[in-house]
Amino acid sequence: MSRLLLTALVAANVISALAVVYARHQHRQLFVQLSRLERARDELNIEFGRLQLEQATWAESNRIDQVARDRLGMKFPEGPEIVVVRP
């Protein structure tokens, strides 16, 4: 009986050790994946900041005014060119 108990305890100890090794291996893999995802997130945040800056530059009113004048030939109307329509 004690021999059977000893064998069961040794088997449980080996199984427990294998479970610890597996859990550590899985933890390392997940940590590496987390690090990759954090790096990708940081790169996306940097790109998003660049795109916001670019959008602000393109949407600036002076830029829009310059493009309207240069490319489209637009200008502000002079006094006699303004017509007021009243209901």
UniProtKB/TrEMBL annotation:
Subunit-structure text: Part of a complex composed of FtsB, FtsL and FtsQ.
Protein name in the entry: Cell division protein FtsL
Q: In which compartments does the protein localize?
A: Cell inner membrane; Cell membrane
Q: Which family does it belong to?
A: Belongs to the FtsL family.
Q: Is tRNA processing tagged as a keyword?
A: no
Set out the biological process GO terms recorded for this chain's protein: FtsZ-dependent cytokinesis
Q: Which InterPro entries match?
A: Cell_div_FtsL
Give the protein's function: Essential cell division protein. May link together the upstream cell division proteins, which are predominantly cytoplasmic, with the downstream cell division proteins, which are predominantly periplasmic.
Q: Which residues form a coiled coil?
A: 27-54
Gene Ontology terms: cellular component: cell division site; plasma membrane
- Organism for this UniProt entry: Vulcaniibacterium tengchongense
The entry's keywords: Cell cycle, Cell division, Cell inner membrane, Cell membrane, Coiled coil, Membrane, Transmembrane, Transmembrane helix
Instruction: Report the superkingdom from the record.
Output: Bacteria
Membrane-topology annotation of the record:
Single-pass type II membrane protein
